[in-house]
Amino acid sequence: MTRSIRWRLVAAGAFAIAVALALSGMGLAVLFERHVERVAVADLQARALALAAMVQPNGDAGASLRAPPDDPLYDQPFSGHYWQVMLGDELRRSRSLWDYTLPTAQAPPPGESAVRALAGPQGEPLLAVEQGLLVGQGRGAVPLRIIVASDRDELALARRGFLGDLLPYLGLLGAALLLASWLQITVGLEPLQQVGARVAALGSGARPRIGQDLPTEVIPLATEIDKLLDARDRELDRARHRAANLAHGFKTPLQALLGDAARLSGRGEAEIARSVEAIANQMRRHVDRELARARIQSGRARQSAEPGTITAKLVGVLRRTPQGAGIDWQIAIPPGLYARIDPDDLTEALGALLENAMRHAGRSVHVSARAQGGRVLIAIRDDGPGVPEADLQRLTQRGLSLDPDGEGQGIGLAVVADIVDAAHGELRLANAQPGFLAELHLDAAPPVAPGAPPSPFPKYS
């Protein structure tokens, strides 16, 4: 999972969302607390001004404090709501303070208020507002200090209630954001999946190249892969040409060596001639095999071939030979069946198998093909004597020929195996009892579009 880009992005997104929601929750809690405190201060200021009505002017005798207004909130001892009024030296307290006097500091200027943090009668923290006023005028004016306070635990309780209501919504928001992040990542990584699908199509031969019709960000990757494929094809072509040139270069010296062996035999050097001829024939088999391998178009597996058409052409050629004219050729291949292989390669492989079946058949050769689970199965069966079970596993070895007449060079089935392997297929050989059965298992290909130019078939004779 640690190597998955998707899960790494999801994990990073989930971490970022969690941090953002945590910071948002903390910020909202702070803002809510400040807002509640401002509301509480405004309420305390209003209550302080209401308590100013306790002042009773007495003319030249100054002023005095009358009885406070009835308010059950301030009558219960230690209720958490308190007030204290000081007019000059006269002090009045709410019943809730019992015998406790709120601590005082420097009084605010007359007409102004100050927010203070005080200790309550039981040591609890209080939010207090002190209002400064002046009763009377001139020298006879008397200072008035009004303190109204409430327990801060009520603010903390409101804050906890707000967070309790907020957390479920933050959880739902986090889940929605995580889902949106997953969808965003899925959409963002879709081009990479598209590139992966096209690379898989390259392997199966469904596409020649990845192409440029992709999102801008992945075009450089697709371009580099296509360049590598072009370089690989060029290198394969060069290697195939070098192998063909080398094999052709050996053919003339080998032919001359066989001629020298014939002259040695004419001079009575039969043993030396046979040794030279055996070595030359073995080398010629190697050369013929390399020539056949050089013709395999492994870089063109994206092409498709129709087994029915190719088989009909090859059987038509074999019927014109003396041995093929006496064979009953039975072909059962439905039209419209295509295999993912180069037509030239399929012609080479079927030609070798059909010629092999013709040489060993008694009276008939049966050729069939069918689609099976995304593959095309081509079967060639003759009614000949078959092959000893001990030799079945060795038939595709180069240089092995089981032809009793000695006409085969032992490279036909080996070349067929190379062709099928290059097309990512499989060659299966078995005794049919009676006869011999050769099966080609190749990937299926879509039918050729109407109007498409037919692939050229090499001449087979």
Automatic annotation (TrEMBL):
- Domain of life assignment: Bacteria
Q: Which residues form the Histidine kinase domain?
A: 245-446
Q: Name one Pfam family in it.
A: HATPase_c
EC number(s) on record?
2.7.13.3
List the catalysed reactions.
Answer: ATP + protein L-histidine = ADP + protein N-phospho-L-histidine
Q: Does the keyword Transmembrane helix apply?
A: yes
Question: Which CDD domains does the UniProt entry name for this protein?
Answer: HisKA (cd00082)
GO terms under cellular component? plasma membrane
Question: Which keywords belong to this entry?
Answer: Kinase, Membrane, Phosphoprotein, Transferase, Transmembrane, Transmembrane helix
Entry-linked PROSITE patterns: HIS_KIN
Localisation per UniProt entry:
Membrane
Which GO-annotated molecular functions does the record name?
A: phosphorelay sensor kinase activity
**Name of protein:** histidine kinase
